[in-house]
Amino acid sequence: MQIFNTVAELQNSLNALRNSGKTIGFVPTMGALHAGHISLVKKAKEENDYVLTSIFVNPTQFNNPDDLAKYPRIPAQDLPMLENAGCDFVFMPAVDEMYHGNTVSDRRNIQLGSLGEVLEAKHRPGHFDGVITIVRKLFEASGRSKAYFGLKDFQQLAVVRLLVKSENIPVEIIPCPIVREEDGLAMSSRNMRLTADQRKAATILSKALFEVKSHWESESIAELNARAEKIIATESAVRLEYFSIADRDTLLPLTEKKNAVICIAAYLGDIRLIDNILPE
Length: 280
Ligand code: AMP
Description:
CATH topology of the largest domain: Rossmann fold
CATH architecture of the largest domain: 3-Layer(aba) Sandwich
Strand content: 15-25%
Bound molecules: adenosine monophosphate
Helix content: 25-40%
Number of strands: 9
Low-confidence stretches: none
Shape: globular
Largest sheet: 6 strands, parallel
Number of helices: 11
CATH class of the largest domain: Alpha Beta
Distance between the termini: 40 Å
CATH superfamily of the largest domain: HUPs
């Protein structure tokens, strides 16, 4: 497995491979890898000749400086996991390599519509500006590829799809299913910051999603919302930020049970977790 720290080295190697007809699967991550990330790497390996994973904790997508400072950085654990999963290349740039001393979001406009207003966009101001900025830079650096994104970050996936479409970026976006712990908690790099008690309490997020899914046919949207809120209220350690039964494309709240995704965000202490489920 080869590690690159600069865009130039990365482009040289990948361009040579592409020129000889090889395909590249790209998995962008912020490191602190878990089985969710590894499932993306394995899928990329199945579908391409070579796999590139990036590890970059992107400062511009953090609306909370404390979250950025505390975000786990453990490359010594990440690299062997990637090697075992069959990853061929790792791109690990320093912040300056990507931002050249200017860590602000590139506000070249793409029209996000409601995706830029609701749920994550509403509660994490500037977050998607940062995501778009870095994904553009990473796609420019990695070139033509298939790029693998988890459904765990449902709104991010929608935003990235829109970016690629609106700027004709030669990258095909491949959505991948959410990988969960045995008790249902969606895997997340932030889970490793939970105390044992918070970790136990955090299962209420996926429990609420599964419960709503299992009552999907028999209850109204208002009843399902009330059901979820009641379940989450049983865990005093969990502070709900939003629960939303939303349209998969616009992420606006639904009034009819059609094309739905159920999204949740909640805090355990200062740790913010998100999850979602497709009810049908
Ligand atoms: P992150 O390192 O959190 O930025 O995530 C990198 C990629 O891994 C994103 O496309 C995420 O959606 C995806 N990912 C994170 N957690 C999971 C999970 N539990 N299951 C599947 N994909 C995930």
